[in-house]
Sequence to fold (367 residues):
Amino acid sequence: MDTNYGLNPAATALLEEYREKLPMYGYLAQTVPAMLKQRLDEAGIVVAAIEHRVKAEASLAGKLALKGDKYHSILDVTDIVGLRVITFYMDDVDKVAAIIDRMFDIDWENSVDKRKAHQIDSFGYMSLHFICRLPKKAVPKAEYAGLEEVRFEIQIRTVLQHAWANMNHDTGYKSGVEVPSEYLRSLSRLAGILELVDGEFSRIRSELADYRRNIQALVASGNLDEVPLDGDSFRSYLSMRPFDALNRRIAAVNQAEIQDVSLDRFLPLFKTMGFQTLGDIANLIRDYAEAAFQIACYQIGLTDLDIVSASIGPQDLCMAYILKAGGGKLGLRTMLDQLNGPSQVNEMMAGILYEQASDMPFMHQNT
Fold:
């Protein structure tokens, strides 16, 4: 095999430099992605992927055959080590870029923001390209002397931009192969749609974040009647542990411990029961806590249970509400099916609970 690839002497010398520095390139290709991932994790930025590669010798030889005259040293070739960070959202591109700027020494003269040179057919090629070096303090002194002089490329693009670029590569759209004009028009329309989708994902995420902050503020302020009941608001409400007082009172009957469990499964039940705001749940606790305690006493008072689930309070509140509203055995069965999944056991349990509750004081009192 011709390891010189028919290159001229200058390009062949560059290829020899590449071979000598191959351990450095391999070190960079493994170390930089790990460094970047750790920093992104610390910042709470979730990305779809961090890809990396070292340019293969044959690929570099092809580049040197075409452009070798412009390079005086292998250090002038800036993309031998390449990384690509693929984000889920457009606005995360700038967040990742800011982290890269703080982590590495950036060669601004050779870096490029292709988003600023936007053309109608360039959606998949709008990535941000940084040419970077490791800061000297990050270089292992003994093993890789001079590593801080080796540049590497980091591209940042979204998932949709990445998919579009790969699809274009497969169709020949950007490869120099002529594509019939009707297909070019279709591809351009599709590029516009994908760009719109990319922007809409970021907009929706931003508006959802604003909504959640507003909900958290309303919950914290105690204005629960103004907070619609949904997944976000319910989780914020649960963070205030609204059922703890009732659970502690129930657990005290047997001096039991309370086992913490997720209460998310109560959200669809509350909505089925017609609750529309967090204020409705607060009113349930206020108005039915005593009835729920009576049910719990009947359930565990004659047992030796020393551990009770944190779900006992909200479940007994729902039972008290259903029974007081006249839902009877069927209402209890529906509640158990929704909480635990449909089962014949629920039919039996509903009958037992209904019989037990029929003589309880709360059934003969006005709420």
